[in-house]
Amino acid sequence: MKLIVGLGNPGREYETTRHNIGFMVIDELSKRWNIPLNQQKFKGIYGSGVVGGEKVVLLKPLTYMNLSGESIRPLMDFYKLDVEDFVVMYDDLDLPVGKLRLRMKGSAGGHNGIKSTIAHLGTQEFNRIRIGIDRPRNGMKVVDYVLGRFTSEEMPEVQHSINKSADACEKWLTVPFFQVMNTFNA
């Protein structure tokens, strides 16, 4: 069984913001695999299904970004999942729009959703897909930038990164994450 989590903030006002790119990938996987996100529990909205013989749970924590671990940990405990059966996807200011970086461990790098996840899991060693959103320019505050929307010029690259992240998740269902990492970080 695999748990795939996309980080973001709940509510219409945040739907298409940079900070919600993890949610966007979960929406893509939900559509691609025909897994409706129709269950609400564990401080999140989730759905489960079987893809290629593997049971999969898709989760969007509804705790707001800074408390994401409060949703992830109880769901992992309920399904008795090990951290190697979990991947989290989230926005990364240090990568250009459209770029991905897959890792099996690491610090939060200033990302509050990952800080919360590390705190609740008690480890930094878990699979992650960092999705580039680039850094703000012209003196814009980071909080305003991440809660802002992508420009129309960025949207083709954004859609590419969403599809590529979904492809990486799909590959992970059949091969170990380090192999997925080697393929998608190339």
Structure description:
This protein is an alpha/beta fold and 186 residues long. The protein has one domain: Peptidyl-tRNA hydrolase (Rossmann fold), CATH 3.40.50.1470. It is 35% helix and 22% strand. It has 6 helices and 7 strands, in the order βαβββαββαβααα. The chain has a 7-stranded mixed β-sheet with strand order 2-3-4-1-5-7-6, sandwiched between helices. Helix 1 crosses helix 5, helix 2 runs parallel beside helix 3 and helix 5 runs antiparallel to helix 6. The longest helix is centred in the C-terminal third of the chain and has 18 residues. The mean pLDDT is 96.
Distance between the termini: 27 Å
CATH class membership: Alpha Beta
Number of strands: 7
The global form is globular
Radius of gyration: 15 Å
Biggest sheet descriptor: 7 strands, mixed
- What oligomeric arrangement do these chains adopt? single chain
Give the gist of this structure.
With 186 residues, the chain is an alpha/beta fold. 35% of the residues lie in helices and 22% in strands.
Q: What is the fold's blueprint, element by element?
A:
Blueprint (H helix, E strand, L loop, with lengths): L1 E5 L14 H13 L5 E3 L2 E8 L2 E8 L7 H11 L6 E7 L7 E4 L8 H10 L5 E6 L9 H5 L8 H18 L4 H8 L2
Parallel strand pairs: 1-4, 1-5, 5-7
Antiparallel strand pairs: 2-3, 3-4, 6-7
